[in-house]
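Could you join me in thinking about how sequence relates to backbone shape in a protein? We need material for that, and I hope you will provide a protein of your own picking. Once you have written the record down, we can walk along the chain together:

…
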Amino acid sequence: MRMARSEDEIILKARVSGKSVAWIAREHGCSEEAIEAVLDRHVDVLMTDKALRQALMLELKRLDDYVETFHPKAQEGDPVCGALCVKISERRATLLGLNAPLGHAVQIIHRTEPARALTSTQKIRAAMDNVMHVTVRERQLLDKESEPGGFGITAEEATEIDELRKVRGKGPRAVDPSG
């Protein structure tokens, strides 16, 4: 059962406020799996590398604004403002991973995006390269050479291609008509 976007927001707010998945499902007359699906959709949006970096940037900016407010008063001797500045510094260090215990650092903000699936053209090219024993390096150089709007390859790279072809029993490109 697919829920409307506004209902998704209501469900998310209920979960954020501490309501259980079972309670929310009963209130909305749907299964717990439907509620979990709503939550999963929000995870897919909110937990991307870009979204996490943006959230970190916004939180660090907020901390900077707090420091601008409380630091001058702390410098004048206000102990409450001084304590707030220390807490702000601790929070910043935690967000930046500076307080993580050695060997237990969680790096969720540095996760890599899933590898993109190869296109059918790329799959065919990879199969042909495999059959023809074209190495990864040779493929990189050939792709660089044929890149539209690119600078092409250097004389050294052209020589490297010819050497790689020689290893697999082919002559230089300018001479060998068999490709």
About this structure: Helices lie at 5-16, 21-28, 32-46, 49-75, 79-95, 120-132, 136-146, 155-167. Residues 19 and 64 are 33 Å apart (CA to CA).
